[in-house]
Amino acid sequence: MIHSPNQVSRRHFLKDCSIGLGKIGLASLLTDSLAGNAGAAEGNLLGVRAPHFAPKAKRVIHLFMVGAPSQLDMFDYKPALTKYEGRPIPPEIIGGQRYAFIRPDAAALGPRFKFSRHGQSGAELGATLPHLAEIVDDVTFIKSCHTDQFNHAPAQIFFQTGFAVPGRPSMGSWVLYGLGAETQNLPAFVVMSTGSGLSGGGALFSSGFLPSVYNGVRFRNKGDPILDVSSPDGIDARLQRDSLDLIGELNRKRLGAVGDPEIATRIAAYEMAFRLQTSAPELTDLKSESKATLEMYGCDPVKPSFARSCLLARRMIERGVRFINIYHEGWDAHSNVEGNVRDNSKATDQASAALVKDLKQRGLLDDTLVIWGGEFGRTPMVESNPSLGRALGRDHHPQAFTVWMAGGGIRKGFTMGETDELGFNIVQDPVHVFDLQATILHLLGFDHERLTFRSQGRDFRLTDVHGQVIKKVLA
Description:
This protein folds into two domains: 1-35 and 229-285; 48-222 and 304-473, Alkaline Phosphatase, subunit A (3-Layer(aba) Sandwich). It starts with 9 loop residues before the first helix and ends in a 15-residue tail after the last strand. The chain is an alpha/beta fold. Strands 1, 4, 5, 6, 7, 8, 13, 14 and 17 form a nine-stranded mixed beta sheet that branches. It has a two-stranded antiparallel ribbon with strand order 2-3. 48% of the residues are buried. It has helices at residues 10-16, 21-35, 79-84, 91-94, 152-161, 171-179, 237-258, 261-284, 291-297, 306-318, 337-361, 433-443, and strands at 59-66, 115-118, 123-126, 139-146, 189-193, 217-218, 323-329, 368-373, 377-378, 383-385, 390-393, 396-397, 401-406, 414-416, 418-419, 426-428, 431-432, 453-455, 458-460.
């Protein structure tokens, strides 16, 4: 079919170039990531840059437990809850706090599992975490985290971006903006998901108002790790190379004519897409991993799982990936908190500990920061609502939750923070989400107050106007 010049759309052009819509889908994704803004013409937005001072960590693996794990059944042992079980918590402790699904006079619910102390540090853990118990002397536990947000999506977005609604850059995007990329063969900021879905959606790994080159790139659990990375049927490497060369030549002519920096970044994006056809499948092919390694993680090399994502994360940092988010959904225990903790611990405990062990034995833990935790905690009071089919659950609790960290300049075998005897309020060393963000940036070599980006007439930063580095957890 012949089209007049006014009828020739980009879709027709790409189709007639025989490169295939699938490949352009990937290239378009990467192009939008590389396009950024006018500053793209002035240099490589992904070039390696020095931080403000010598870093302890060079890369981050964030194991984000979406839905909020119950700290009271895993990390923060409160035997007094057993004594109160079946009775309301004193109103002076609750202090007028209102909840979405339980009344303020709801009865206390004791810990569902036996707790024991482990390691030389004596860290106290619930019985569902036997693998974490093996590495407690490499870990710092912060039992006094708190957040401003009560609901899942705002709290998840807040943890990742420092703001409760979409539109701000994610933590991974800030890190990439500050440090640049060490690899040209894989995305420098990768996102994986191993559960039922993300309440916060793409806002959790968006670059917000930063140039879109700093977006996180989501890896899929099945098929091509990145959408459309495989060539369409009938397109061999030679034809693809010839097509890319032709498009590149046309793009360079256009670039010379109009000087639009987006065109230059599109040229680079097509080449990145071409390289990904080799690097992405090689990354996700676990045949080279030993049987012992697979067993340590509890990983079936071809079956999607949290364990497989953790092993891929280790392979990614070996190949220069800078920031990795692994989201494991399913911790929202409004009913049957005991079953929820048992099932999710079974899915995540072994692989989380194996990741730390594996990094350590390969000499990578010292400069890799591993973080584990959710968006908030769970209530000491029971949630039971027959009309909703709920019983023996726990509601959202922003006042206190637990996060653990390892590697990358973090103190070993240390527990920080304390809640009251019922686990309701923090009584020692409160740590706000902004403080966690400031500390992560500090370990990467940044003064969180100086890592800024000007947008809409003012300078923004991840921690807004808040945040203090948590000096007690630093090695």
